[in-house]
Design goal:
By secondary structure, the chain is mostly helical. The protein has two domains: about 10-65, Arc Repressor Mutant, subunit A (Orthogonal Bundle), CATH 1.10.10; about 75-220, Tetracycline Repressor, domain 2 (Orthogonal Bundle), CATH 1.10.357. Helices cover about 75% and strands about 0% of the residues. The chain is built from ten helices and no strands. α7 crosses α8 and α8 runs antiparallel to α9.
Length: about 220
């Protein structure tokens, strides 16, 4: 026998949805205030009191969403990373060759760091090894596909993930701190060295680097 929905259920569901929206809005408000404070060059340090003041909330309201300031900062970094990953999917996820995918993804992140220092700063704060990271899922899949196809020599898949993400993070750091005189040449070098370190034959590695550069240039012209 089908269970009939009580007339009381609808208001309860509505209240639940409304409450969730309020929680989401408050969380976004806290993160926005935290981001603004961290992006302010005049701020030597940031405290929870600072965040509460800018967000116009109480300390208690902050602690309902985050256990510490570090947790809020990590959430900003995670959202910056996941947001970037979702943003590049239309360009990146149409590719099928593992080396082309790896090269293109790395280039997209490094180019973003070159053009958007604010984004790069929060990307560097992200905890990229969390199981829920969208970026991590794609990196794992690409490295697994490359290893299965015999294109990558990876004795340890996790070590491969750590090496690729580590190289990308340090590349973003260098771009963010303006330590790079020729961004295009630097990005080429980072990608090439990662692929060669993964056992990719020299010509194939260069071809993957060249592909991502010309592919994204073509995409930019189309846009």
């Amino acid at each position: 026998m089908a269970t009939q929905t009580s007339e009381l259920d609808a208001p309860l569901d509505h209240r639940s949805v409304t409450a969730q929206r309020k929680r989401d809005a408050m969380r976004a408000r806290i993160l926005s205030a935290t981001m603004d404070l961290l992006d302010d060059p005049s701020k030597v340090s940031v405290t929870i009191e600072d965040v509460a003041r800018v967000a116009n909330i109480s300390r208690g309201a902050f602690y309902k969403h985050f256990a510490s300031l570090e947790e809020a900062v990590a959430a900003i970094g995670q959202e910056a990373t996941d947001g970037m990953t979702l943003h590049i999917l239309p360009v990146y996820d149409v590719l099928t060759h593992p080396l082309e995918r790896i090269s293109t993804a790395m280039r997209l992140f490094l180019l973003r760091a070159h053009t958007d220092r604010r984004w790069a700063a929060f990307f560097l704060r992200a905890d990229l090894v969390q199981d829920q990271s969208i970026l991590l899922k794609y990196v794992l899949a690409d490295l697994q596909a490359g290893r299965d196809a015999g294109l990558l020599d990876l004795p340890s898949l996790q070590a491969g993930v750590d090496a690729l993400i580590g190289a990308t993070l340090e590349g973003v750091r260098s771009m963010n701190q303006r330590r790079v005189d020729d961004p295009q040449a630097y990005i080429d070098a980072v990608i090439l060295m990662v692929l060669r370190g993964f056992g990719v034959e020299n010509m194939s590695a260069h071809e993957a680097v060249t592909f991502s550069r010309s592919y994204l240039q073509t995409q930019a012209q189309v846009d």
